[in-house]
Design brief:
Largest sheet of chain A: 3 strands, antiparallel
Strand content of chain A: 5-15%
Helix content of chain A: 55-70%
Shape of chain A: globular
Oligomer: homodimer
Largest interface: A-B, 32 and 32 residues
Number of helices of chain A: 6
Structural class of chain A: alpha+beta
Radius of gyration of chain A: 13 Å
Order of helices and strands of chain A: HHEHHEEHH
Chain lengths: 93, 93
DNA sequence: ACGTCGCACTTGCATTTTGCAAGTGTCGAC
DNA sequence: GTCGACACTTGCAAAATGCAAGTGCGACGT
């Protein structure tokens, strides 16, 4: 499997990169991600679980049943790739 | 929709970026892509249609019923993003 | 002490996407 | 005129995604 395929195995699923992009600004709570991205709640839960398992992000407990999701170093390392893709998307056509 | 979401709308589908990566080396024929990537043939056909419609690649007629797929400028512009993602994938863990 | 609210999910089911296997059409070579 | 290579298409099963409604749990007011 190529390096690209390995990367896509982790962040190639729908919404995954959008979640990571949102977390580049700093830790966010579940509800914030959901409202900002418009992602279905079950998909968000699934992605967060997968991305945590992949070591891209971690859960930070805040208060009682509230927590924040924050990128790990490995997650932050995606910044370059995300910026490059976003720039390509911006040059539409 | 963010720029990243716009990009993923075009190249976010499964196999799409892998096809583009393969074409970065130069035009390839259908059968080559299929064998090199191990992508199901109906998916390859679908992706090539979508990527052509999106202006990422074009068909070059070769001989009779043989053609090659080549990246457009817009397709080549994905190189940076692909390299960044592949590098991230290579730094596994 | 009790109901209510916000938050972070889970669950059930319909829809869409993906994948596998087999088939189709076309052209050139033999 | 039949055979093989090439580029697909088709039919159907499996998996991913999406929508809507429900669950659990602690805080907060009364």
């Amino acid at each position: 499997m190529s390096d690209l395929a390995a990367a896509l195995d982790v962040v190639g699923a729908r919404w995954a990169l959008l979640v990571v992009e949102r977390l580049l600004d700093g830790p966010q709570r579940y509800g914030d991600l959901q409202r900002d991205l418009g992602v279905p709640t079950n998909m968000l839960a699934t992605r967060l679980r997968e991305l945590e398992a992949a070591g891209v992000l971690t859960r930070l407990p805040l208060r009682h049943n509230t927590r924040a999701y924050a990128l790990t170093d490995r997650g932050h390392a995606l910044r370059e790739a995300i910026v490059a893709l976003a720039r390509w998307g911006a040059e539409q056509a």
